[in-house]
Amino acid sequence: MREARIGRMLPASVHQAIVDELPARLDYYEHWLHPAGLRNGTIGVAAFRAVLSFLRQEDAAYPAVVSRAGRYAAAWSLDGASPLPARLIGWLPFPLQARAAVWRARRVIAAADVRALATASVRRKRARIRIAASAFCEVREPVEVPLCGFYAAVLAEVLARHGIEARADVEDCRAAGGEACIVTAALGADAEPVATEAVRALG
């Protein structure tokens, strides 16, 4: 039976983040994230999960790697797209601009993680993206801190690239016992981020 594949963006962005954050460990992780697989898009789901499992044992490196990977995924996706949508969004009034940018972030997540089943909403200067099936949160036992910082980083980077001041946080995480992974962003200079117990544990 052919092994399920994870796609190109997730393993490529995590690989580049490992290059930046854990250069001394790159050879180890390239056992699973090998160059040919990255180039051809043939990295399997099992290999990607193995990488995440070992990254979680690297202590503080895990959140740094997945956050940087999220920023890379957002940047690569937007850099590879037509500049016209960003220009059009920039002409909109702030409420519509924020909504359009958040929906762009949702599309980046959906394209990077085809199993994510991401939905998005914006209400009262607060953006919310719900990820029903996070590739980062497949764990056998519940964990104490969120594992899905990748998606918060995607949201923050997309908003920043549209000139929208925001602070993104993980509000809930399936790996930490939540029904789904939820990332939120307070929009605007005066907005306050959601502070959950799971998020405080990261501080």
CATH architectural group: 2-Layer Sandwich
| Overall CATH class | Alpha Beta
Radius of gyration: 16 Å
Q: Kindly give the count of domains.
A: 1
Helix content: 40-55%
Largest sheet: 4 strands, antiparallel
Q: Any idea what the shape is? A: globular
Written as H for each helix and E for each strand, in order along the chain, the element string is HHHHHHHEEHEEH
Query: What strand line-up does the widest sheet have?
Result: 1-2-4-3
Q: What structural category arises from helix and sheet content?
A: alpha+beta
CATH topology: Muramoyl-pentapeptide Carboxypeptidase, domain 2
Unreliable stretches: 191-203
Outline of the structure:
This protein has 203 residues and is an alpha+beta fold. It contains nine helices and four strands.
What does this 3D model show about the protein?
- 47% of the residues lie in helices and 13% in strands.
- With 203 residues, the protein is α+β, with helices and mostly antiparallel strands.
- The protein has a single domain, classed as Muramoyl-pentapeptide Carboxypeptidase, domain 2 (2-Layer Sandwich).
- Strands 1-2-4-3 form a four-stranded antiparallel sheet, with helices on one face.
- It is globular and about 50 Å long.
- The C terminus is likely disordered.
